[in-house]
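Hi all, long-time lurker, first post. I run a small reading group and we've been trying to get comfortable going from sequence to structure in the token notation. Rather than ask abstract questions, I figured I'd post a concrete chain and ask someone more experienced to write out its structure so we can walk through it together at our next meeting. Sequence below, copied exactly:
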Amino acid sequence: MSAIDLREVFLHMKDDLSVDPVPVDEAFWAEIGQRTHLHDGRLAMVCAMDRTWPHWERHPAGDEIVLLLSGAMDLVLEEPGGERTAALRPGLAVVVPRGVWHRGIVRAPGAALFVTPGRGTEHRPVEPQEPA
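-- Answer (accepted) --
Happy to help. Here is the structure in token form:
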């Protein structure tokens, strides 16, 4: 077993409690809906947080964990009572509840670990009047 770079290979943590490495290429996210073998379980990945997200996202299939590894980022959650912002700094995490729209505002470049459901992720653009 060799070390895995979670920026290049995601881990598919399957419902049967096994884990499969999943190489990531340029087409990964564009094809995620067709990758039905990833729909069950969770994906663990590390992503560079070098700019504010141009979109909102949500995960109807389950909760997501966002753990900031380095840098600084505000995670904005769109909840029924209005928006809530969680200021993430290295070592701090947020559990994003199932189905809640959220986006990241990067305050200082870094990286984050995501543990996210593999099925049904949705995106919508950030509207121009929304602050970054």
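A couple of things your group might point at:
The CA atoms of residues 37 and 118 lie 9 Å apart.
The mean pLDDT is 91.
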